[in-house]
Amino acid sequence: MTAVPAEEGRTRRAGPREQVAAAVGLLDRPLTSYYLVLGCSVMLLALGLTMVLSASSVTQLQETGSAYTLFQKQAVWMAVGLPLMWLASRLPVRTFRALAYPLLLLSIVALAMVLVPGLGRSAGGATRWIDLGPIQIQPSEPAKLGLVLWGADLLARKERLGQLTEWRPLLVPLLPGAGLLVLLVMLGDDLGTTLVLLTIFLSLLWVVGAPGRLFVGIAGLVCLLVSILIVVEPYRMQRLTGYLDPSGNRLTSNYQTIQGLYAIASGGLFGTGLGEGRAKWDYLPHAETDFIFAIVGEEFGLAGALVVIGLFSLLAYAGLRIARRVKDPFTRLAAAGATAWLLVQAIVNIGAVIAVLPVTGIPLPLVSYGGSALIPTLIALGMLLAFAKREPGARQALSARGPGPVVRALSWLGLARR
């Protein structure tokens, strides 16, 4: 219990208001955003690797003879992604701006390659992957990062030139560029990624201060586009009708949703225990990817599910805090776009699992299996860490903190620079 000064020679215990004020004061420290992003990312990564092993062990034992197949692959992707995250956290802002156009161009080329017969691979009604023999790449995932960087750089340049007061300079070439990405993803029948790309586009317009009429009009156009995508594709229409009638089609379009709800319901308050869930025994399809949150709810219960939601909430708070506190327009826009991407993707995934949203096939960031989604996400989080160091007072706080663990370890080996 915190003690506060009272009369001379005596102390009294802090009251509830003082304790709340002290806790809130922790959020005002310069490095709060940095440690929130880092801590939430590491905890979600650790949970994700554990749950990938638990959710995939049964099916992988049946298919490959080893329960650790997907776990080992995910560990390899993490071993690749974490150094990239660390590298991104140490890059200057100008490097992210320099990468914006090349990454967008590479994303467009890769998305076009997905549509080439013999290169693209389909699954679940969507053509999302480029088949490169032993590995498959999903180019729509780095395309999210490409749109964040390119859109932020473009709008920051226009803001510096004072070109954001009229709708035409505001939307050109942002709207055609985002539209091209969305079109290529739509041609691959990937509605979930289309929603995320549109969310990034709208978040950039919101942050840059697009006029209300323009924003509402674009949002209405997006809703119309999504409605058309649902109507023209039979399996999407089945998912929508299944969502509207959850008690019907229990063995067809609603099977995955119902099994996910059974898994969460059987978890109770504290779950069945790690590895003790039954949904992964060929009851719940895609347990290690789209529906891994159901396995979390089954094996860790309501408490575990709330921890996951809490970690994503803190991550979103940290990202928005960075966007609010930094001064540079590009940094503000990129931080907001990346935060919107991760937050909306988590909301759509969790919402589909608990049947408050239709199933779209979007993975849960940092938790679901898949290297194509994990590595761009880790790079985006590294970027947020780099931006957090540019908050007011952050550099001074980092300098006062002294050398980090890597530098200290190198100094012990006599390898640190003097």
UniProtKB/TrEMBL annotation:
Its main location: membrane. It catalyses: [GlcNAc-(1->4)-Mur2Ac(oyl-L-Ala-gamma-D-Glu-L-Lys-D-Ala-D-Ala)](n)-di-trans,octa-cis-undecaprenyl diphosphate + beta-D-GlcNAc-(1->4)-Mur2Ac(oyl-L-Ala-gamma-D-Glu-L-Lys-D-Ala-D-Ala)-di-trans,octa-cis-undecaprenyl diphosphate = [GlcNAc-(1->4)-Mur2Ac(oyl-L-Ala-gamma-D-Glu-L-Lys-D-Ala-D-Ala)](n+1)-di-trans,octa-cis-undecaprenyl diphosphate + di-trans,octa-cis-undecaprenyl diphosphate + H(+). Pfam families: FTSW_RODA_SPOVE (PF01098). It is found in: Cell membrane. Its EC number is 2.4.99.28. The chain crosses the membrane at residues 34-54, 75-93, 99-119, 167-185, 191-207, 214-232, 300-320, 332-357, 369-388. Keywords: Cell cycle, Cell division, Cell membrane, Cell shape, Cell wall biogenesis/degradation, Glycosyltransferase, Membrane, Peptidoglycan synthesis, Transferase, Transmembrane, Transmembrane helix. Pathway: Cell wall biogenesis; peptidoglycan biosynthesis. It is a multi-pass membrane protein. This is Probable peptidoglycan glycosyltransferase FtsW. Peptidoglycan polymerase that is essential for cell division. Belongs to the SEDS family. FtsW subfamily. It comes from Actinomadura violacea.
